[in-house]
Each structure stands twice: as C-alpha cells, then as structure tokens.
User: Fold this.
Amino acid sequence: MQVLRRLAQAAVRYGVKPEDVGPISTFTDDAYMAKYLDNMRREKTPAFNGSTAKHRERARREWDKVIARVG
Assistant:
C-alpha cells in the first residue's frame, strides 16, 4: 500500500491517471508498482510532459478512487 501511495503522488505530479498505468488488478502487485515508480523517476519534468493543474487535479481524483478501492 505504501508503494501505491508513493506511485499515486508521483503520478499526480505528472498528471498520469490510473488507467494510463494499467488495470486495477496491477495495483495490488507491489513489485510491479515499485518498478513503475522507478520508471517515472526517470521521466523528464512534469512541465516538459505538458502536465497542467487541470491534469493534476483530474489525476488526483482518480487516484483517490483507486486507493479507496484497493485499500
């Protein structure tokens, strides 16, 4: 669950929604989530990827739903 929360924080920063990562079943696999989080750290800055406040807010709402469902 800790890895999922860290991934969610990083994903919100980049405006990445859960469906961009994979199906809900992947969120219970800590090893997969840790690898995905490591890959996100190698990404360029959020501004370079075109992440805006609107994208981050939408991603935050979607990640909150996933964490509530998995947790």
Notes: Residues 9 and 60 are 8 Å apart (CA to CA).
